[in-house]
Amino acid sequence: MKKTIAAILAGALCLTALTACGGSKTDSAAADSSSAAAGDDKTITVGATPTPHAEILNAAKDALKAEGYTLNVVEFTDYVQPNTALVDGDLDANYFQHTPYLNNFNKENGTDLAAAFDMHYEPFGIYAGKTASIEELKDGASIAIPNDGSNETRALLLLQDAGLIKLKDGIDPTSDATKLDITENPKNLDIQEIAAEQLPRSLADVDLAVINGNYALQADLNAAEDSLITENPDYAKVYVNVVACRSGEENSDKIQALKKALQSDDVKKYVDETYKGAVVTVF
């Protein structure tokens, strides 16, 4: 049975990471990733994870075409390479990450990528694996969570809101928490830190899993419909997904054209009808 957690958000919007271990571009992405570096003024090359980001970008292609631009979407299967490719100049922008992850990436890598504009948030959810509900969890049950900075923090806070653990004082969405910050674990839960993209596949092997919104969608899971518990919307909004670019290019013609197309009524309608609450626009 789905619940909605009423969580009170303390702190400001920052980041510690959104995901991922290694991964690679799709074959088509590898073939098409050079247009930004080639300096094609009428081609906008954007890196994205497949669902929902690449799908949303594709929904904006016609609007960009009407403005004289060709949109080239390069799909990535992880959360690391899209930023690396943007730094290297292989992309004009990327669309896959929330603000805290972007901030953390810049901090850890000495980069200067910028959030060009906000698009949406994806509520985190706790999903049933071998155990059907939170109430049925037994002593020593296993729970899989993402292993990267901000997303691990986010998952641990959701487990705390569900009454399963207690974290030390001062842990909020701006923190970089791990399971070492758990101070109370009355059920002796086995918290397993797993690469975010592997979480849906882990469901068969663990009792519960806390899964990122995009990876849940790729596994045909909808946080609004399938999760046992979802984040309170005010909490989830801290993790707004952004279109990112290199610092200083936020007002370039390409980025402004991309913003106009993506923040259109047609794209908003597409998101609302396609994702049914698992992806929520903020424009």
Automatic annotation (TrEMBL):
CDD domains: PBP2_lipoprotein_Tp32
Segments traversing the membrane: none
Locations listed in the record: Membrane
Entry keyword annotation includes Ligase: no
Pfam families referenced in this protein's UniProt entry, alphabetically: Lipoprotein_9 (PF03180)
Keyword check for Lipoprotein: yes
PROSITE patterns xref list: PROKAR_LIPOPROTEIN
Full protein name: Lipoprotein
Organism, as annotated: Butyricicoccus faecihominis
